[in-house]
Amino acid sequence: MTEFNLKEKFKRSDFRLTKPRKIIFDILENSEEHLSAEDIYRIAYNIYPAIGLTTVYRTLELLEKMGIVLKHDFGDGRARYEIRETESKRKGHHHHLICKMCHKVIDYKVCMDEEKELVKKTIEGLEKKYGFHITDHVIEFYGYCKDCYSKLENQKKQRRGQVI
Amino acid sequence: MTEFNLKEKFKRSDFRLTKPRKIIFDILENSEEHLSAEDIYRIAYNIYPAIGLTTVYRTLELLEKMGIVLKHDFGDGRARYEIRETESKRKGHHHHLICKMCHKVIDYKVCMDEEKELVKKTIEGLEKKYGFHITDHVIEFYGYCKDCYSKLENQKKQRRGQVI
DNA sequence: CTTGCTGCAAAGTGTTTGCATACAT
DNA sequence: ATGTATGCAAACACTTTGCAGCAAG
User: Fold this and answer.
1) pLDDT attached to residue B142
2) What mean pLDDT do residues A73-80 have?
3) Residue A83: CA atoms inside 13 Å, Cβ hemisphere, count?
4) How many CA atoms lie within 13 A of B30 on its CB side?
5) Rounded distance between C-alpha atoms, residue A64 and residue A62, angstroms
6) Whether B24 contacts B59, CB under 8 Å
7) How many helices (H) and strands (E) in chain B?
8) Coil, strand or helix: which one is A95?
């Protein structure tokens, strides 16, 4: 059985359960979003204005090293953090669909057993072949969302118009 | 038939084929690595010391927008660029295996038709469901390479030793 | 009490921008 | 000739570090 409470998990570790950490854990556990350090800082600040952005960065770094949080780069110039599915009651395993223009990210649930099976097989193969110890995988699809795609098409049309 | 020469492709476009661009194209076409802007700048500098790092960034941005180059973040704090397989005689379609500690990246070729089929099916499903126009996908496995993994294990042992 | 954790300010680092000049077409 | 592309320097934005004080265990 997986334990879904970061605070519990932390008490059992050698790290200290401080006020800033408690707040950051709550935010991560209760968010569906991909939060940046700044996002988390702002939310935390409302609860506990004494908190510093540095602490947010340091806590996230710690959580990442502990394998509790995943750090992503979706191309908008800042790292985004997300709690792992095994640590969250809310998030199941999912992949990402990312707009290269507005950087919107859609989580989509993986339902196909076929895919899970294939990923498992791939991991086994890679670990054997390259001697890696694999802990995570990322499957992401990049492109343009509906809105940005039509903007793009309009731009093309306009450019053609100017040339004529 | 795909055209494998960036310079040719560029002549047909509305952009100007300048000396810095020629050099950057050559570097990208002839490299097997995932180069950073700085890497490319250094190689280019040896051929043409008048080149500026800014130009490298701007050229890479342009190539990315044209869909000729892929920009990656492997977690070492700088973007890395790689020519697309359709633009290169050298690189076939591949995915990445990334060490979270030393940031080494292994390219592995995808041979399984099963996987290609699944990816195709997934893309079609996502485009329909979310109205996205998908242009790229990324499949990456993260973990620790053999060396870093044993370093990690040693650290754990030492820490246990200290506690006793 | 001990020492890990915190917040602040400052430094660091990759990347982008403003601008006058050079150059491809 | 004309307008795009360039290189430099400066600006930016996110992230990390040094340090003295605070507080969890």
Assistant:
1) 96
2) 97
3) 22
4) 9
5) 5
6) yes
7) 6, 6
8) strand
Single-letter amino acid, residue B78: R
What does the DSSP 8-state code read for residue B50?
Answer: T
The answer as to CATH 1.10.10.10 being correct for domain A1-90 is yes
Mean per-residue pLDDT, A19-47: 97
| Entry pTM | 0.91
| A30 SS3 class | coil
Q: What are the extents of the domains in chain B?
A: 1-90, 93-164
Q: What is the pLDDT of residue B57?
A: 98
Return the CATH fold of B93-164: Dna Ligase; domain 1 (3.30.1490)
Distance from CA of B112 to the nearest CA of A (A): 10
Q: What is the pLDDT of residues A113-160, one digit of tens each?
A: 888 899 999 999 999 999 999 999 999 999 999 999 998 887 766 665
**For position B52, what pLDDT does the model report?**
98
Measure the CA dihedral A128/B155/A5/A53, to 10°: -110
- The single-letter DSSP state of residue A13 is S
Helix (H, G, I), strand (E, B) or coil at A15: coil
- CB-contacted nucleotides of strand C (7 Å): 4-9, 13-18, 23-25
Q: Outline where A30-134 has alpha helix (H).
A: 37-47, 53-65, 113-130
Considering only CB atoms, B141 lies closest to which of A100, A123, A131, namely: A123
By C-alpha distance, which of A39, A24, A115 is closest to A74? A39
